[in-house]
Amino acid sequence: MYRLFWILIPLLFIGCKKENPAKTPEVKKTADMSCFSPHFMKKILELDEMKVQAKFLDSLTKGKSGIAFLVDSSRVDNVWEYSISAGYNGPGRFETYHIFYASGNLCDSLKIDDPVNAEQLSIEQWRKRKNQPSVIESFLKQGKYSLPAESLPRVDVKFLETDFDIEGSQQYSCGTPSFRYFPLTKYKNIELILVPMDCGDFDYRYYLLTVLNNTIAGEAYVEGIWFDPGNDDKKEEFSSYDISKSGKITVRTEHTMDGHDEKTTYTYYQIRDDGKIEELKN
What we know:
Blueprint: E1 2-6, H1 25-32, H2 37-45, H3 48-60, E2 68-76, E3 79-89, E4 94-103, E5 111-114, E6 119-122, H4 123-131, E7 149-150, E8 160-162, E9 179-187, E10 190-196, E11 205-212, E12 215-227, E13 235-243, E14 248-257, E15 260-271, E16 277-280
């Protein structure tokens, strides 16, 4: 059965004759411990979220309308069960803001409908979920490694190919018709991937990219071989990396001349919470 209540704050006493239990001694004892729809509607109006809606309606209708209710009640095992739609009773239709659920034998308990996940949540659960940032589904395959991580053997790095769904990915394609990447791991909610920058004279150079919400946020050259193709000498630089659990990247570069070690240098980076890769000063 449905009933429409139009309520202006503060809530006045509302009777509901059809909810009165039959007058038998056993049922009367149950009714003494029960709460009916007016009790739950009052609790709904006391929620901060509904106070905001009521204030908006008051402004929208210039004080002519407040929160209205549609109540559907049923009696199961001598207990009233309620579905209470709270919203705006407009000229043409009833606009539902939220649907609440209550049981007459649980006077202090209210649940609210979560239409996205098709669940009934407590008010506390609903508020917690509402305040959590929405999770955006990634277009990338998930990496199977975890932090700390270090350079992998080249034979183990097999690049995947995909369309340019990741924002900013085209500039890392080296002219190929698809985006090539290796899913490495995650730092917090940031995806870490390797991409080959094998353009021109270098066929072994990997960049580490950070991807947040399907957008490339940061980059750093972390692995590969560099040499000067214009000189006859055999000066080479070989770089490798490791990434700590705290998101610190260490790039180790070994410098050689004609196959002999000259020196080893280190460059340090930090992955920030916004996905940017920031070089750290020594």
